[in-house]
Amino acid sequence: MPTPFRYTEPLPPKAATGRVAEVYAQLSRDFGIDEPVTFVVLSSAPEILAAVWALMRESLIAGPGSRTGKELAALGVSLANRCPFCVDAHTVLLHATGDHALAERLARGERPENEQHARVLEWGKLTRVPGGLGPEPYPFPREHAPGYLGTALAFHFINRIVSALLTENLLPGNAQRFRVVRSLAGRTLSRTVRRPAVPGEALALLDLPDPGEAPRWADGTPVGLAYAALIRAAMAGSGLLDAEEQALVEETLWDWDGSHPPLDPSGFPDRREHPGARLALLAALAPYRITDEDVAAWRRPEHTDHCLVHLVSYGAFAAVDRIETAFNRPTART
Fold this sequence. Notes:
Blueprint: H1 18-31, H2 37-40, H3 46-61, H4 67-80, H5 84-96, H6 100-107, H7 115-126, H8 145-165, H9 179-194, H10 222-235, H11 243-254, H12 275-285, H13 292-298, H14 305-325
């Protein structure tokens, strides 16, 4: 069977120990999927794996707000980022919430009939553009903002990891493209998805940051500490670049308007001169365009899977950080 992993060879999940094994155990219990490849691909960097899982769990699964609404937000993010794997995954998860008709309308590319659902989906899409949400109120109650914002940021990161390091097929042979398969897959997850999750349980997996590092929008919820842990873990990958390359990445992201870059490769550093900066910027802006040549140009004998995951995570989080700094705090509409 073809491997879903593009540039890494993660250890089999059954061989996991320590923190990685603990993350897999929580994933199975609270997400309902044993060893999902979206997390297995990060297993060579346990600190990143744990932080990403914690942010997703504490926002999407255990955070405030309806699961259907947050799945719609995550789907909007995935559509904006052109991540077909994640688009398919959230369609299946909408089946798991019991919203079968909504899931199938979205699978056909149609607009939700419910205006509230349509607004949340559009909100998710707009989060790709730094500052693109404008002065309008949130399409959800203000007290649910930590759950929705954390979910959006989690999937801006996950989309980029998936597009960079995995193939596009959610299921073998793209079987999720068939309605009956989507529905059945969703039904197998329905019990877990509808079961309430206790907030904060993923924090035990983290080297917890100082509470003062949590963003204000998290309002003191576990989402904030999980986000701060991901900042620390992902930004460590910047050490794989020299100071000039780090500045190039950060300056490019600061000027980024949320658009997808043109096919002309001149907008990215030359892989012969700055292969690390090129990989990081591709991970940030267009991870689906990373090629074998890009990885080979950077990867030397000392660059392990751990290093590649860290470099891609740094680029992915640089984009997330740019998006997060542009979040405004509008008045809620309930």
